[in-house]
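Researcher: I've been going back and forth with a colleague about how Helix-turn-helix domain-containing protein might be arranged in three dimensions. Neither of us has a model we trust, so I'd like an independent prediction. The organism is Paraburkholderia elongata, in case that matters for your notes. Sequence below.
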Amino acid sequence: MGQHNISSVAHLIAEPVRSVMLITLADGRAMSASALAEAAGVTAQTASSHLAKLLDGGLLSVESKGRHRYYRLAGAHVSHVLESLASIGPVTPAWRNTPSRPAQALRFARCCYDHLAGQIGVAVTQSMLTRGFIVEAGERQYALTAPGCEWLQQLGIDMGDPAFDQADHARQCLDWTERQYHVAGPLGARLMDAFLAWGWMRRSPTTRSVTVTAPGWEGLKEHFGIAREACEAD
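Model: Here is an independent structure prediction for Helix-turn-helix domain-containing protein. You can compare it with whatever you and your colleague have in mind.
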């Protein structure tokens, strides 16, 4: 990759309005230009200009539905770059101890493109490692073990999915608030889908935060050994 391409992409991401738009889209959902303008605190005209640059730069894709256009990240690779950039530098005590409830919610559990992140995402990953369901497998990769495949099948996750045959089926994603890895890739996405389908978790309609439900806490305790009291005391 040439230096020019790196500098061009870095310039696109570095602009404050565009960075807010990109982070807002980092849970994988598509949003309208007006919603992104509101999130970034700019006018519709200003938002349109920034969105055009992000499209030209290959960071966003757009789809039309009737008269409306909806924008989303161009792929998981863009979300990965955003999370990696956010993980550079220390997490300050001000962030970890912030009284802001939205910030606390994001740190506790959130969507990182298509998989679970935050304290709960890291706790799920650590539990799977401790129980031998995944193992470290090279640089920035996990791998499912035979017991892990059997366990997931017992939970009702389709292990015939060809995505699990990919070398990067369980990528390590550095969590920018916890400074530890959580599981990403197809395995992370399938787990997130399952947590939502089972009613264990609910996505916020307006932010990237995720709420763990009462049945979810029961499931996390039973299958991962994750206790609500320990998580909320952290």
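Researcher: What would you highlight for our discussion?
Model: I'd start with this: The chain is about 50% helix and 20% strand. After that, consider the following. The CA atoms of residues 54 and 60 lie 6 Å apart.
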